[in-house]
Design a protein that fits this description.
Elements: H1 2-17, H2 19-41, E1 44-46, E2 52-54, H3 56-66, E3 71-72, H4 75-89, E4 95-97, E5 103-105, H5 107-114, H6 118-128, H7 150-163, E6 165-166, E7 169-170, H8 173-184, E8 191-192, H9 196-204, H10 209-219, H11 221-229, H12 232-235, H13 244-276, H14 298-326, H15 330-342, H16 355-361, H17 364-367, E9 377-380, E10 383-386, H18 387-411
Helix pairs in contact: 1-13, 2-10, 2-13, 7-8, 9-13, 10-13, 10-14, 10-15, 11-14, 13-14, 14-15, 14-18
Length: 416
């Protein structure tokens, strides 16, 4: 064991002392910090007088505005919000004709009333009117006397979505039962308050994929670099070269990846929370997507996403080490890694169905985080697995298989 420990320390020193690795780590850390900070620096808000704010000031203004509507979203409170909206819309003095030739609220009404309510009203609109819309127009003429309880209607919308078909494909009875049961366990009524720190974190969380790419760059030469430099001739002929030597390289690679990615996570999450604060961690994720069936708070979903991102990282590290053991050029390893990671950028996901779509959901770029809004499931026999859990299972399996193959490939490598 001591021999392995010594070898691991040696491999770690090689990884952390390599100039290219140091440059890649620092550049990526700067990039992640910059990209995540933009969410706060570019945040805009307008007060009731119409004065614009940006950055930290805007966040403070929005926090104060949210206090007007914070609290428990009872059915009565939701109905009152719709009634107030309709009252304002029925007054011609509050309306203007927009660039599309349609009636819309004047800028004064936006500043005094809609600025802090638009997200809430959009979610209400998705339940009572049209769950595919991104605005509130259908609430203007909604007949409130014909409407059921808000939370009953929300459940009905989820059922409608589960009954829809896409290109002839639909949810199986087991999948419907799974999602309905999950949604039925959602605690209602929802609490409403400032949650923009978490929502902005989720809007940028996928950018951590740059951290995964940076780590893959650093590890691409773990085995391939030995081939390229000819040092494999020495390592593979030593006493522990084909056993403890390989194990040490793998352990060191995972320690390196974990430490570096943890730094990226701390800077990414810390940057957002330093600007927006940590408010809203105890609130339900349904505030960002009212039809989400997951029973999670924002803080719980963040913890879940951290687990997901580490498993994606570990799977990609395993794949990188396998490719590095198989190929003699680190650049070839890197090209394949980046192609696998970035492929989903060029292929759009059209629905929750079909083999291609379900594979794309599990590709690194899409899998690095989950917003817990889509009802994507994988059916294995009678077992239904949701996307976040399937991501964890897939990348753990990928890691194990890749590491076994990497160790065997390098150990069996014939020194030329």
């Amino acid at each position: 064991m001591n021999n392995v420990g010594t070898l691991v320390k040696f491999e770690l020193k090689k990884l952390f002392n390599k100039k290219m690795n140091i440059i890649v780590i620092i550049v990526c850390l700067f990039l992640i910090t910059l990209l995540f900070s933009m969410a706060g620096k570019d945040f805009l808000a307008t007060d009731k007088s119409g004065k614009f704010y940006k950055g930290k000031e805007a966040i403070s203004v929005r926090k104060e505005q949210m206090k007007e509507i914070s609290g428990t979203l009872t059915n009565e409170k939701i109905i009152k919000e719709i009634e107030k909206l309709q009252e304002l819309h029925n007054d011609p003095n509050n309306l203007i004709t927009n660039s599309d030739g349609e009636k819309d609220f004047s800028i004064e009404i936006y500043n005094k009333y809609l600025n802090n309510r638009l997200d809430l009203l959009t979610n209400i609109n998705r339940v009572y009117a049209n769950y595919n819309t991104s605005y509130i127009t259908e609430l203007f003429n909604l007949n409130l006397k014909e409407q059921k309880d808000f939370y009953e209607t929300r459940q009905q919308r989820i059922e409608e979505e589960l009954n829809q078909s896409y290109d002839g494909k639909k949810y199986t009875p087991q999948e419907k039962e799974y999602w309905l049961e999950k949604s039925n366990n959602t605690k209602t009524p929802f609490e409403y308050d400032f949650y923009y720190g978490y929502s902005n974190l989720y809007n940028t969380y996928e950018l951590l994929i740059f951290g995964v790419i940076a780590i893959c760059i650093c590890l691409a030469s773990v085995f391939a670099g030995e081939y390229q430099n000819g040092t494999d001739k020495i390592l593979l002929t030593t006493k522990y070269g084909k056993s403890k030597g390989v194990t040490a390289k793998i352990i060191a690679s995972y320690i390196f990846a974990t430490l570096v990615f943890t730094i990226y996570l701390i800077f990414a999450i810390g940057t957002i929370f330093l600007m927006f604060g940590t408010d809203g961690g105890n609130l339900p994720i349904q505030l960002s997507n009212i039809l989400s069936p997951y029973v999670l708070t924002f803080f719980q979903s963040l913890l879940y996403n951290i687990v997901i991102s580490y498993t994606v990282l570990f799977g990609m590290v395993g794949l990188t080490l396998f490719l590095s053991s198989k190929l003699k050029n680190p650049m070839t390893v890197l090209v394949i890694d980046i192609a696998i990671i970035m492929l989903p950028v060029f292929l759009s996901i059209k629905s929750a169905f079909g083999i291609l779509n379900k594979i794309l959901f599990l590709m690194p770029y899409n899998a690095i985080y989950s917003n817990f809004s889509q009802m994507v499931s994988y059916k294995l026999g009678n077992i239904v697995i949701d996307l976040p859990m399937m991501t964890i299972i897939t990348y753990i399996f990928m890691m194990v298989i890749a590491l076994i193959c990497a160790k065997k490939t390098y150990s069996k490598h014939q020194v030329e």
